[in-house]
Amino acid sequence: MKAATGLLTVNLDALVENWESLRRRAPQANVAAVIKADAYGLGAVPVARALARAGCRQFFFATVPEALAVRHLLPDSSECFILGGVAPDDMSAVFEHRLTPILSSQSEFERWSEWTEAYGHCGAGCGLKFDSGMTRMGLEPDELLAIARQPERCERLGVKLVMSHLACADEAAHPQNAAQLEMFSRVRTQVASYLPGVKFSLANSCGIYLGDDYHADLVRPGAALYGFNPAPGAANPMRPVVTLRLPVLQVRCLHHSASIGYGAEATRPTGAVLAVVAGGYADGLHRILGAQGAAECAGQEVPVVGRISMDTTLFDLTDLPDAQTLAGGSMDYPVLTVLGGAFDVNRVSTRNRALGYEVLTGLRSGRYRREYIGGEG
């Protein structure tokens, strides 16, 4: 790699294989794809295109602008759900581009009613979200049931999906999972008695692996598509999707002990060999590397030393067999892998005590060249 920026490689074939693996895990449900936050930092346009070619027809976004960036690439039969609902300024785009907002409050539902009446139709319809125990966004169950008891109105307003969200799906034994499933199942039975054509959704990536009871009509994987382990504590059934490699800008051998980086928080002794690598906190590396970061170089683990700077990060190469040769400038500088191989997103996130979601979405800010493999289908 002879460049001044890192290379982010996204394996779209692996992404599609992960989606197909999740379909096999939940054969009775539709398997959607959550591609909010620019597909968790990996690029919503190529990700959506690859999944659509593979047969995915339900996509979830956080905002209307996110959906608009890819809607034109998707088959007309695709459903694009907006998890953040819809604001007045986005209303015309929602109707024009057949987007489906998820409504999470009584006031949102009433506004949707007013808008559909004004537009004369319900566009691609709407979904309703209720709170089954996460205590975040969502209608109270009683509010949802009050809406469901108006089936003619719900049909007129295009209610097509009722969903909730699990708070602790990444901890399979957590009692909150069973409690939320019990509430979800009870509410589902009640709502379905009034709205028999409506679909239901509860499970995210980890929720899919809690069992068939959690699958309902539609599951909403996000992180698992991108290689994150949806079954913590067990072998990862997902293929790795992302690799991030960073070029070395300079290698130097210390001729005396020295403090390293901003704040002089680290020191290294005489003879230490340090590499200055292209990429810093402006590129999301503080999320990827954390407080005790490391990378792979020539098959060996090398640690971060000192604070991560805006544009660069220092690694200690002292223990590499060729460290002194590198410092002498008589061989090409190596490339450091901070994501990929032994440093997959699960290991990296566990090591730096971050969520895998944080590691992946941290890539969004990166000044990386991007390379996409496969996905043409």
From TrEMBL:
GO terms for molecular function: alanine racemase activity; pyridoxal phosphate binding. The modification N6-(pyridoxal phosphate)lysine is found at K36. The active site is at K36, Y262. Keywords: Isomerase, Pyridoxal phosphate. It holds the Pfam family Ala_racemase_C. GO terms for cellular component: cytosol. Pathway: Amino-acid biosynthesis; D-alanine biosynthesis; D-alanine from L-alanine: step 1/1. CDD domains: PLPDE_III_AR. Its EC number is 5.1.1.1. Gene3D superfamilies: Alanine racemase, Lyase, Ornithine Decarboxylase, Chain A, domain 1. It comes from the Bacteria. PROSITE patterns: ALANINE_RACEMASE. Belongs to the alanine racemase family. This is Alanine racemase. It comes from Gilvimarinus xylanilyticus. The gene is alr.
